[in-house]
Amino acid sequence: MTADLGDLNAFMAVARAGGFREGARAGGVSASSLSEAVRRLEERLGVRLLNRTTRSVVPTEAGRRLMERLGPALGEVEAALDVVNGFRDRPAGTLRLNVPVVAARLVLPRILPGFLAAYPEIVVEVTAEDSFVDMLAAGCDAGIRYQERLEEDMIAIPIGPRRQRYATAAAPAYLDRRGRPRHPRDLLEHACLRGRFSSGAIAEWEFEKDGEVLMVEPTGPLVVSIGGSTDLLVEAAVAGMGLVILFEDWLQPYFASGALEPVLKEWWVEFSGPFLYFPSRRQMPAPLRAFVDYVATKRW
Question: Which among 55, 49, 61 has a CA at the least distance from the CA of 13?
Answer without folding.
Answer: 49
